[in-house]
Structures
1.
Amino acid sequence: MSSIVTEAGSGDEAPAMVRAHRPDVAVLDMRMPGRDGVSVAARLSDELPECASLIVTSHAGAGALKQALAAGVRGFVPKTVSARRLAEIIRTVHTDGRYVDHELAADAIAAGESPLTPREAEMLSLAADGAPVAEIASRAALSPGTVRDYLSAAAAELGAENRHVAARIARERGWL
């Protein structure tokens, strides 16, 4: 018989709760406060490989699914999945199976690979919350001109009129 053994209030709290309670499966929200579900899953995979991870999401882009699988996630489902189906998927993941929602997988395949370089993606990620170029430059240890160059290249690559639109496009496609 399965049971819920604990609940964490944030992605920062989740690894400690998993270490303390040792569940067989950690069900993680993609967008938890603090640390996101993929980074928590990666940490759990390193520290507690006996605990399988399953991510539920309402915002799944192609990159998110790929990052999740690379982090060792064994299941990836939309939040709209029924409780009955979620229980079945948790059992599948618990018995070393995998489950990826077919619509999320199709969306990931259709979105393709990111055209951004790792540095362009990093700059867009730093710009996504509206930070000014000077702050991004300081956080990235680059000159403001270099940051502008990366952001301009990323916007051009994505056909966006500015860095804010480029960040939104890249995030929607799961590339950030």
2.
Amino acid sequence: MSVLSSGSSRRPSADDLLVLLAVGRSGRFVTAADELGLNHTTISRRITALEQTLGGRVLTRVAGGWELTDLGREALVAAEAVESAVQSLAADASGNRVLEGVVRISATDGFSAYLAAPAAAEVRRQHPGITVEIVATTRRASTQRSGLDLEVVVGEPQVHRAKAIRLADYCLGLYGSRDYLREHGTPATIDDLADYPLVYFIDSMLQVDDLDLASSFAPAMRESVTSTNVFVHVEATRAAAGIGLLPCFMADRHPDLVRVLADAVSVELTYWLVARPETLRRPEVSAFVDALRAKVHHERNALLGK
């Protein structure tokens, strides 16, 4: 059913469509209200008015928020056209389109710090009106992406009504501090690893299958310091807590860390970007994704430990 050929003879209000756009992107009435400077009641009233005009539901309740219905996704295309028309009126002194808005991304700790943050800074240099919010977390892709525009996860995700984009491969390797290896010796074979403690994730709290399997090459290694945060892994390894299984692009930044058994232990994993198709069409999100891809491409050798 077309949004302009529904059972009602009235055309949908542009304001109501923009409200739907805000709710559809965030999945929450409260977030949309804050973004638009309205209250929750007004958001609810405008959505109800839009549904009455279109003759059907545009949103459906899900755990943690709201998702677009088929009619809602069709209406969202019209809402994006309204937004684009409004934004096209805003230009800088050179006549270039001014981009603004908030881009919310969740990613692993290391990716957030060394890839997402520099990409955000580059976007800000080009488009000062864009704000980037980075949530550092290591988890599977969400089944409901309420409140998030983009997610970066480890391992190919199984997603519903979202697009998964392969961003980059990266490598985990074994590292020890120079002081630790001087005192305890350097393992020469994988069998030798049984005599060394491992610094890695807390096994019982790890939600990502690919990371869970990464340490299976040395099941005999006993745990030393474990954490949900990869920066803790790096610093514990630097402090001589044991042998760390670390992302090469993080460990190689520290001259006091030495990679061991590089030929025998090289665990290759993949970062994936997950987002709704309608989110990727937003100009500010597209600008950030472009900057993120450029940063990942620039760091490809470091990501692979080369």
3.
Amino acid sequence: MGTDTATDVFEEHRPVLTGVAYRMLGRVADAEDVVQEAWLRWSRADRETVREPRAYLVRTTTRLALDRLRQAQSRRESYVGPWLPEPVVTDFAGTVPDAAERAVLAESVSLAVLVVLESLSPLERAVFVLREAFGFPYAEIAAILERGEPAVRQLAGRARRHVEERKPRFPVDPAEQRDLTERFLSAATGGDLDDLLALLAPDARLVGDSGGKAKAPLRVLETADKVGRFLFAVAQQPIPDMEFLFREINGVPSLLVLSGGKPDSVMSLDMTEDGRIACVYIVRNPDKLGAVAP
């Protein structure tokens, strides 16, 4: 197999490899590093003996991601404040024509689900990502992880139950999400605290990720009153040259806040079934905003 062919094969599968690595790790740079290492191993492999390149590449990427995830989990224990995944701009509507598949991919990359995945063991997370997001057969996952198929099915069931218990329990229409995000922005910047509080569920939460490198709460805020008053106070102190852009980020309409044309923060909302805000996610750690730069 020539170099050009090897490159073509790898590039054909790169989107899946990047998708697996990002969902495993929650960081774009880490995912890119893993995919690059997978390429190096692919380029050095005796490809004449590789019967199924896709299986080989996914297996290599998953194992590399598992190793990096185990290292990252120990580092995150010393992270300053809450930890959120690194936001990424998505456009499943433009790249995945099937609506059902698009919904699955969007949910699997949402901040809410990625936060839940943080509480799984590395193996549970790998099984969940491969099975639920990409539909790999149990037998193939077992081969990738070098585990028996019954053990993989057990891991999958445990991970699925854990995620189902903690993720939002109903599908969100993108148009409704966009409308709520627009009303949230209007209320937060409009100078009326009551308008903002009316949009929040009584048990609303706010999770802010700054990594200690920007202003954000170092603890999760809980209750509509605390979340609303914090957001209202922040809105009264606008950042220099502030600009708001609506972007599909991690599968949902979100707010990208710019300062002087550069990303300052990303805000994403979880909705309740009655159309109010269940959770506000704010990523302000500058190290995590490179992938959303306009």
4.
Amino acid sequence: MTTDDPGSEPANEARAKSFGAVAAAYDAGRPTFPGEALTWILGRGRGLQVLDLGAGTGKLAAVAAGLGHDVVAVDPSQEMLEVCRRRPGIDTMVGAAESIPLAHASVDAVIVGQAFHWFDHARALPEIARVLRPNGVLGLLWNNADTVVPWVRRMVHAMQGSDHIAGDRFDPMPILLQSDLFALVETARFRHWQDLDRLGLRQLALSHSRIAVLTESRREAVLDQVNALYDTTARPPEPLRMPYFTDCYRARPSDLANYRRTLDAPVAPHL
């Protein structure tokens, strides 16, 4: 489970749709992804056709573009994509994981940062397999805060509330292993840090779905906790260094997925 674990319906739907309203905070407050994590997924070459699915404001897409790949970012939120369009080297399309607006076998890689847990997997995995080329790769990434650090643990508790279970994170492995569309699932973990000032810490809190759907008074109460945490922890002008583990999964289309793709219609409908 990530700090944006969707929970149960109907709260799931409300939280999944909450990110557009906090696009600016998401872009300013969320960490990027380490380049070595994406290199592990994509390889050390350049010039791949890469789809960033559930791209949000393009944090992961920007890393892929910086590594020399041709990137298209797809997200259902127009507000998130408006921010993403400010980044160089990224094409954008409004669309969903369950109905990807790209042609069959049109990309070398599908990457998903901090979003796979929101997908309807029964519908999204066939779509991902459809747009991947036979030797393509699916890469899933999550930035998870290292709650061994006491102040980080208090920060996660403030954002998640008293019902949060430390160390309880979404694990996509059972979903990938049960699918007949992907094979050779591998995992890796990379460590990195995010430097935050007082405003950045507030924006990080505001970017999380649980905070975004709170009433204004309850949201301000959480932000008061975040401010107090900064005041008792930070030593300005030095930034707070938020430690993360980036958990990565990569998988290849199975022979069955490659066979099914040849039987389907040649072009996916556009949204």
